[in-house]
Amino acid sequence: MNEAAVERRLAAILAADVVGYSRLMGADEVGTLRALRAHRSEVIDPTIASRRGRIVKTTGDGLLAEFPSAVEAVACAITIQRGLASRNVSIAEEKRLTFRIGINIGDIIIEANDIFGDGVNVAARLESLCEPGGVCISRAVRDQVRDKLLVALDDLGEHQVKNIARPVRAFGLTPNAIAAAPDLPQSAGIAASWHARARMLAASAVVLSIAGAGGAWWLLGAPMTFPRHAGGMAPTAAPVAPARASIAVLPFASLSAEDGSDYFADGLTEDIIAALGRFRELSVIARAGVLNYKGKTPTPADVGHDLKVRYVVDGSIRRTPEHIRVTASLTDTARSTVLWSEKYDAEPKDIFAVQDQITRRISGALAVRVTSLELARSAAKPPNNVEAYDLVLRGRDLLGRLTRSNNLEARRLFESAIEIDPTYGSAYVGLGRVHRFAAIQGWAQETVETLERAADLARKAIELDDLSAGAHALLGQVLVQFGEYDRALDALKRAIDLNGSDLEAYRGLAAVLLWRGDTQGAITAGEMLGRFQPDLSEPDAFHLAMAYVLADRGADAIRILRQSLDRNSAEPNTNILLAAAYAQAGNQPEAERQSESVLNRFPLFSREGFGSLLREASQREKLGAMLKKAGL
After folding, report:
1. Strand 337-346 to 253-254 pairing
2. Please, which contacts does 265-271 make with residues 24 or more away whose CB atoms are closer than 8 Å?
3. At 174, is the secondary structure helix, strand, or coil?
């Protein structure tokens, strides 16, 4: 059978990102989101459309777009930065939304409306090199625009950027150069207006949301024959008190020449985060909360301000088949003072000892500042074979970019790791997560059997290593899916006892406390999860927002749901719950408007099924009454 041909084309790629977005959100979430939406709808999106660009995807604080012309891409960037600078004049400096923009031209791969390849990666790296309010372009783009746009470009020299073998020559447009640039002529031949284009994109989003809604069956309340407890203990609060010292471990930089070596640096970062989380006196930002810093070089003060942490760890890893060099440093963000730094040279088989030394040294440096810091061996139980560890890191990397194909490849890697080392608990945890994801995303033919397999793998991992927080967290998450709320709570509390900063444990805890009836406990766990991972995933935001709605905190639910919709406006459960939140908050016009949108976009919605996982009948009735009040 012939494989489908890979679609490629040459394009100009624009990557944009808000400077200090986490700091702005920490200071004023509602105001920042409102300003960002206004900038997008009134300046950025219409300008991209007018220059024949296509927005490929957006994140909470940035976007990626492609253009058929480098000239159009640069003209678009200049127009956007000029427009945003004009809007910022009347805004206090600490509240301004300032963008960096990077542009590259190159061959890209197109897959399911997304784009990939070195051309895209270089654009993202150029954005990180850019001056706030400016534009940074590659030499290929400069060659295309130098005789067509009368702008003053600064030669920024060559830069060795992450994952790109050859140095990249960068050219910059400062904010002053942008302000001094002449007016740029508009594109000709655009067949449709911006508003018509927006309507078309919105219609496409509805089709995609309906096509992809199968992965959310358990939230929408589709009937399944899971065992449930008829009664149960009264809800109890879970141990979610914050630790006294806060720390962020930034993604370690991979300096290796070999392609695809990022996964090893990412895996080492994740393991150090997990190891530090074993210290109950430390509050450790989860890996997902620091991913935005990957490939960037923020100052310790910026990280401390954005993530509200006092300490930051950063480092790099250079790996060859025969040798590993790891550098790491610990910095006090309040004073930008390096408390400790060290370089480790080791053979690949000694990577576990290197990791343990790093964790111990960091703990020792913090010991004089944190009362009763437990100086114990915190590294996870290492496998007997370094090759199995390597396979598990590759599998984790794929699970962090969840797609059906990545999930299948991760399954192969975890199974290979188990074949090499049948005693390696982390490999069983990884394989269990593969099966759980397959079940909840609708990728498995036999959903119940797939979840049971995930539970068996979690129990096997616990049998091999009872101190594995990840194994207990996985078991708890699967038991939530089965409606085994009390047993799930026990497993998740055990995971948090082992690692007070485990992201997966808090993720499952927020869900089980919500469905079990402990609304305040779910809020506490959800807010703690937000502390570790500032940008909550859609399911996590949904759980916290539903708890807010049931606790009569509609305004807080609206804030969380609007943030989630900024990332994915087509997600059905978020849209449905937002209608109930508006009704709970007393905003009937917005509730009715949101309900009308839901009924138009998701005609199969059932009020009776929504929230059916809530164990307390009174809570199901309360949620149903709010949906009815909203017009659903």
Report:
1. unpaired
2. 265/316, 265/317, 266/393, 266/396, 266/397, 266/400, 267/392, 267/393, 267/394, 267/396, 267/397, 268/317, 268/326, 268/351, 268/355, 268/393, 270/396, 271/355, 271/379, 271/380
3. coil
The span from the CA of 277 to the CA of 269, in Å, is 12
Tokens (6 digits) for 559:
């804030």
Mean pLDDT of the chain: 78
For tokens 């910026």, name the residue.
302
The CA distance from 480 to 505, in Å, is 12
Q: What is the pTM of this model?
A: 0.54
CA–CA distance, 58 with 307 (Å, rounded to integer): 21
Q: Domain limits of the chain?
A: 7-180, 245-367
Q: Is 483 exposed, middle or buried (0-12, 13-18, 19+ CB in 10 A)?
A: middle
Rounded distance between C-alpha atoms, residue 51 and residue 194, angstroms:
11
C-alpha distances out from residue 143 to 147, 151, 157, 171, 464, Å: 8, 13, 15, 11, 59
First to last CA, the chain: 48
Closest CA to 287 of 326, 317, 249: 249
Topology of domain 7-180 in CATH is: Alpha-Beta Plaits (3.30.70)
Q: What is the DSSP letter of 2?
A: P
Cα dihedral 529→531→532→538 (10° resolution): 50
Q: Is the pLDDT at 368 greater than 60, yes or no? A: no
Quickly count helices (H) and strands (E) in the chain.
Answer: 26, 14
Per CATH, domain 245-367 is 3.40.50.80: no
Find the range with the poorest average confidence among 126-135, 273-282, 411-420, 567-576: 273-282
User: Are the C-beta atoms of 329 and 338 separated by less than 8 Å?
Assistant: yes
pLDDT per residue over 536-560, tens digit each? Answer: 888 899 999 999 999 999 999 999 9
CA 532 to CA 524: how far, in whole Å? Answer: 13
Looking only at the bridges linking them, the beta strands covering 253-254 and 282-284 are unpaired
Identify whether the C-beta of residue 575 lies closer than 8 Å to the C-beta of residue 609.
Answer: no
CA atoms within 13 Å, Cβ hemisphere of 389: 20
What does the H/E/C string look like for 489-552? HHHHHHHHHHCCCCHHHHHHHHHHHHHHCCHHHHHHHHHHHHHHCCCCCHHHHHHHHHHHHHCC
